[in-house]
Design goal:
Layout: E1 2-8, E2 15-20, H1 25-33, E3 39-51, E4 58-77, E5 82-89, E6 101-106, E7 112-115, H2 122-131, E8 140-146, E9 149-155, E10 160-167, H3 178-199, E11 208-212, H4 216-230, H5 234-239, E12 243-247, H6 256-261, H7 263-268, H8 273-290, H9 299-307, E13 317-321, H10 330-346, E14 350-354, H11 359-365
Parallel strand pairs: 8-11, 11-12, 13-14
Antiparallel strand pairs: 1-2, 2-7, 3-4, 3-7, 4-5, 5-6, 8-9, 9-10
Helix pairs in contact: 1-2, 8-11
């Protein structure tokens, strides 16, 4: 995300920020930034009906314009990274009446401007800072698979995205006809690798996690190695040292949570944000099992623990889901922003805001 213009007053948080989304991940940041009652300005196409004077006939045409709406609802499709923001028109023009409804479809490479209804609080400013940080990019590529099924995923700092699913029917191994199964398996590996290469950036290699029950992932790793060597594909050869093979219960997407929580994988991904958050969740569950009063969950319980100095002075960490900051209720959002500010500013403690679209965030919300 590129920051085009920022005009935010430090004193009261009033003002606007104009942003340019440059890649699909930026739509996730926009989804977290835009809240109900905010003012959003972006380009739009609206059908305008005009009546011909004298004859009474009508004509309609699609008109490009800049619209400013007061946000009422937000719809985000993580799989396609599409963001649709609905609301009432907040600034009238010759084509659109004040108060009429419109849905803005935010698009890549098109500016949009946000003005926060309640001002830019600490959480909104933190999201804005993360959104425009060029270092925040994909952390891990993953392929969770079993024979005949592969889920190609992108794991970023903020979400786990299913890029594509590969499904293929393989003949069973039969005595005297094992060659049919092997040929079909090689074709499956070929299709899976082609799919994987369409979604990963070989120019900037990241860890590639291959996970499966049995030896499917190991066999696929060997297939990638042999393909890289036989085709003299140097970018693919450069990816080989960063491949990680792990065991999973199945080739379905939900098995990724178990894989990413395994100590072996965490050790190899120790420099990623997800690994740090997973370690914190594991520590939380460990303390919860001990039941010695050092792990608390629930709104009132956590607020009470913070008030008693358990976070900050007491050495604890506040784990909170970013879904709370997207609440439709203004008072609810303010409640959790105040808690985060209290921990950071008054107590000097650590706060971890977990993404609701990440596996670690889903574990937190599962409580």
């Amino acid at each position: 995300m590129r920051l085009i213009k920022q005009n935010i007053e430090k004193r009261d948080g009033s003002g606007t920020a104009t942003l340019l989304p440059e890649e699909p991940e930026d739509m996730w940041h926009a989804f977290n930034l835009i809240r109900p009652n905010d003012r959003l300005r972006a380009s739009a196409i609206r059908r305008v009906v005009a009546e011909t004077s004298g004859t009474g006939s009508t004509t309609s045409q699609r008109v490009h314009m800049n619209l400013c709406i007061r946000v009422t609802s937000i719809d985000f499709d993580a799989a396609s990274s599409q963001l649709h923001v609905s609301g009432r028109v907040a600034e009238e023009n010759k084509h659109v009446k004040m108060g009429s409804f419109h849905t803005l479809d935010l698009e890549l490479q098109r500016n949009f401007t946000i003005e926060k209804a309640e001002g830019w609080d600490s959480i909104a400013l933190e999201i804005l800072k993360e959104a425009i940080d060029p270092a925040k990019r994909a952390e891990v590529y993953a392929c969770v698979m079993q024979e005949g099924l592969a889920n190609v995923c992108l794991i970023t700092e903020h979400q786990t995205i299913l890029r594509q699913r590969v499904e293929m029917s393989l003949p069973k191994k039969r005595a005297g006809r094992s060659g049919d199964h092997e040929k079909a398996l090689q074709k499956f590996f070929h299709t899976t690798l082609e799919t994987l290469l369409r979604h990963i950036d070989l120019a900037s290699p990241k860890p590639l996690l291959l996970a499966s029950p049995g030896f499917t992932a190991t066999a696929f790793q060997s297939y990638i190695k042999s393909t890289a060597i036989s085709t003299a594909n140097k970018p693919l050869q450069a990816l080989l040292p960063s491949m990680i093979v792990a065991h999973s219960a199945s080739g379905h997407l939900h098995s990724l949570t178990e894989v990413l929580a395994s100590p072996g994988v965490l050790a190899k991904l120790s420099n990623t944000k997800y690994a740090r958050e997973t370690a914190l969740m594991d520590k939380f569950y460990e303390l919860l099992r001990k039941d010695d009063g050092r792990a608390w969950y629930g709104p009132k319980e956590v607020e009470k623990a913070v008030a008693k100095g358990a976070v900050g002075r007491g050495g604890g960490v506040l784990l909170i889901s970013n879904a709370l900051f997207r609440s439709q209720d203004v008072s609810t959002r303010r409640r959790w922003v105040r808690l985060v500010d209290q921990v950071r500013d008054a107590e000097g403690g650590e706060v971890r805001v977990f993404s609701s679209e990440h596996e670690s965030g889903k574990r937190l919300e599962g409580l």
